[in-house]
Design a protein that fits this description.
Uridine Diphospho-n-acetylenolpyruvylglucosamine Reductase, domain 2, about 25% strand, Enolase-like, domain 1, single chain, 3 domains, Uridine Diphospho-n-acetylenolpyruvylglucosamine Reductase, domain 3, binds flavin-adenine dinucleotide, five-stranded antiparallel sheet
Amino acid sequence: MKPAAFEYHAPTTIDEAIELLSEHAQNDGRILAGGQSLVPTMAFRLARPTHLIDINDINDLNTLKEEDNTLQIGATVRHAKFHERVCSGVLGSLLTDVVHNIAHYPIRQRGTFCGSIAHSDPASEWCLIAATLDATMVAASKKGERYIPAAEFFETIMTTSLEQDELLKEVRIPLLSNDTVYGFEEFSRRAGDFAISMTLVTYRLESGKIINPHVGIGGAEDRPRRISAAEDALLDQLPNSETFLKAAKAASEFIDPMEDHATTAQYRRDLTETLVRRALEKTLV
Ligand SMILES: Cc1cc2nc3c(=O)[nH]c(=O)nc-3n(C[C@H](O)[C@H](O)[C@H](O)COP(=O)(O)OP(=O)(O)OC[C@H]3O[C@@H](n4cnc5c(N)ncnc54)[C@H](O)[C@@H]3O)c2cc1C
């Protein structure tokens, strides 16, 4: 099928894009970033935006910088940019490790980091990273800029707290200290598919015990989020198999997994326990 008719706009400045959004958002005017999620849904006519505001010609959105102890990722930075390290330290390694789990090589050449965050598929790897590491989303509209913490951004499946007339201008991820360890694990049925469940864990050690644990789960629930029960099970404990198993079980009991025609909630729960345990074990390698 072909998409329904729409009017195409190609602004070259952020102000122009925001102006167009404020004019057309109420009639389902939409931002077009990499088009890797939006265009297929338009082709199936599941989405019928009347206006497309293509942000790819806005040079000021193609930015990647380290500032204020955060990595700041502009709205048109593509997934493929993360095939190479984009920042120093542990966060640089983490992003490079995770990017290869996103879709397929051609999709990564076009799809954008911020497009994934705005689209908010529960199984998006970048959304999991944003939720686990407490990223901040910078939303811009005619009213000005708004800074939205990840815990308030992801609401449910493909639904965020971004207003219709807001452009997701940038995502800011806190840099990780050099003594932070991490483990990432996901499971999908075929290479390149969305994950049925996935997890990112990070922590540091002080006097041999775990401090500042972050345990995020994506794909299993309707949105990615940190799982406090698993983090509590890790805090102030020795990093060993017994601690990791307790945290993995806590995560699996705490979540409210989705169900679909191919996967039961119990399957996602069991899978999540295994993935959290494996991700934690990876931190010792
Ligand atoms: C076969 C296939 C497999 C895939 N597998 C994965 C996977 O394993 N993991 C994964 O994470 N993703 C996967 N994807 C999705 C892919 O990563 C997309 O690139 C991503 O979801 C959306 O980014 P985009 O830049 O293409 O956004 P677009 O498709 O252009 O936009 C998506 C939505 O977000 C809105 N939007 C985009 N940018 C902004 C912005 N800056 N401000 C406000 N709104 C905005 C658009 O209006 C639209 O509603 C897959 C896609 C395909 C086709």
